[in-house]
Amino acid sequence: MTKILLVGFCFPDAQRLYVELSTILKQEAKPLDNFAQLKDFLDKNKEVKVILINRAINIDKSNGFLILDFLKKNYPEIKVILISSVEEFQKSAIEKGAVLSFDLDLLINIVGEKREKEKQKIIEKLETIVEE
Length: 132
Description:
- A 5-stranded parallel sheet has the order 2-1-3-4-5, with helices on both faces.
- The model has no long low-confidence stretch (mean pLDDT 82).
- The protein has a single domain, classed as Rossmann fold, CATH 3.40.50.2300.
- It has helices at 11-25, 35-44, 64-74, 87-95, 105-108, 113-131; strands spanning 4-7, 29-32, 50-54, 79-83, 100-102.
- By secondary structure, the chain is α/β, with parallel strands linked by helices.
- The chain contains 6 helices and 5 strands, in the order E-H-E-H-E-H-E-H-E-H-H.
- It is globular.
């Protein structure tokens, strides 16, 4: 059963994020390339708990905020996390109903000591969100 979906990440980032989430959360994560794949997957699978969306989806030029709006309207029970390195977009995502928004680099790159506490907070929030 897939509980976590990763939407719109380039292949290397999706692979690294998959490894991190599998390690941290002990949950299967499935990467999807675009909005159409997400809709199709949700039509066939009802056990999704969390969806992580890349704010700028390059493959089909979708905007992560459009996907966030669609999910909040049609699947309000699914928790949505919008990934963006821009603080303004992170705040906007929370205002629009995302349960969390953060910079992808916190999970997939080695972060310096200064950001290690921030990374740990994100990991703790992710663990809580997935277990709810």
